[in-house]
Amino acid sequence: MLTSLNVRCAIFLAGVFAFAPPLAFAQGALTTTRNASDERLTVGRGGDYWTADRIKEAQPLPWYDQDKDLGAGAALQLGVAPVGPPDSAPGGNPGANQAPPRASGAGSANPLANEEAADDDAIPDDQDTAIDFGSQDIGDGYPANKTIFYQKQYPWRTTGKLFFTAASGGSSYCTASVVSGNNIVVTAAHCCYDRGVGSFHSNWSFAPAIRNNNRPYGTFPYQQARVLTSWITSGGRQNDVCVLQMGPNAAGQSLSSRTGWLGRSWNFPTVQHHFDFGYPGNLDAGNFSETCAAETYANCGDPNVLAMGCNMTFGSSGGPWLRVYKPHEIGNKNFVNAVVSGYDGCTGTFGQSFNGPRFTSDNIVILCNAQGC
To answer: 236 in the Ramachandran plot: left (φ > 0), alpha (ψ -120 to 50) or beta?
Structure first.
């Protein structure tokens, strides 16, 4: 576990070696490196750490409390929407051990894209982003993989629980989803780095499609976790995004080859119809994935933070918000466009609405380009 002093030392050393080639770290070493745009943690711990008993003991991680972190009224400090055209990367089929790296923001060149690429995804919604069509506390919620048929179906199988040892102590979990053929998952930054403690969590392992503690694809220990430098230095919901590179499971299988992966989209208008997936502890004790469907709106008037009506609470952190939701269809659809971050007083009613960072060139693109999505 890193102390605040460790973090400052690691950041200083990273600055000294900014122009050195990437370093290889022995298993069990805990080291941070930093450049101008992102922060990376490299550790490695075997997947055997997360035994069935530890998984049962893991508690849902509370949401990120921006007001507590940044001070009262922080949620009302409006951001400026980043400049950049809407863009996306398509999802993919399981089977390939690894997909070629693709730089986010370079266009959606992928052989899996189909005729729908020229459909509703290629053209931004013709809506005024200054108008909020979504409504607080209005959304449909229903079970996802509680029905066993859906456990190993797409896109449900790409979402799972991300287990870790919290920086403040104890076993916790968030929700995460696979977003790259390079075995990369996305979640919330507060599921990777605790700003209150000033330290990274540790021992992450991802269990895709987990259902009542049954793990049909096994558990995948992480190799690297990456958050924005701005999350560590400044916090803020718009920066509450983390990507993790996952290693093979106990059978030596890669994550993406078992589950496939969801698409990603960024710089799309605030008003979108989203389907969210998560493992909230307030519903069925977090044993199954749940779904919410609603139209989003700018959280507290901030164009960089989305909000939607949903009845999920803790444990849903990091859960994907999907645009162009198409069950059982892989390719240019099912785009992760945000992740669950938390709740502010102006979001709506606690337990009936939540919010998350809108994916933009300033968060998911930076992280994915750095990690090699």
So the answer is: left
**Is there a domain that residue 19 lies in?**
no
Domain count, the chain: 1
Task: Give the pLDDT of residue 139.
Answer: 52
Task: Name the residue among 212, 263, 274 with its Cα closest to residue 88.
Answer: 263
pLDDT of residue 17: 25
Put residue 61 in one of left, alpha, beta given phi > 0 → left and psi -120 to 50 → alpha: beta
Residue 228 lies in a domain: yes
CA R_g for the chain:
19
Cα 67 to chain centroid, rounded = 21
CB contact set of 71 (below 8 Å; sequence gap of 6+): none
Range of the domain at 136: 43-371
Q: Read off the pTM.
A: 0.80
pLDDT at 325: 95
Helices (H), the chain: 4-16, 52-57, 66-70, 229-233, 255-259, 364-371
Share of the chain residues as helix, strand and coil, in percent rounded to the nearest 5: 20, 30, 50
CB 312 within 8 A of CB 319: yes
Within a domain: residue 13?
no
The model's pLDDT over 217-253, given as tens digits with 9 standing for 90+, comes to 999 999 999 999 999 999 999 999 999 999 999 999 9
In terms of average pLDDT, the best of 57-71, 78-92, 105-119, 126-140 is: 57-71
Which tens digit of pLDDT belongs to each residue from 181-216? 999 999 999 999 999 999 999 999 999 999 999 999
Residue 224 lies in a domain: yes
List 350's β-bridge partners, or say none. 353
Residue 160's DSSP bridge partners are 176, 208
CATH number of the domain that residue 167 is part of: 2.40.10.10
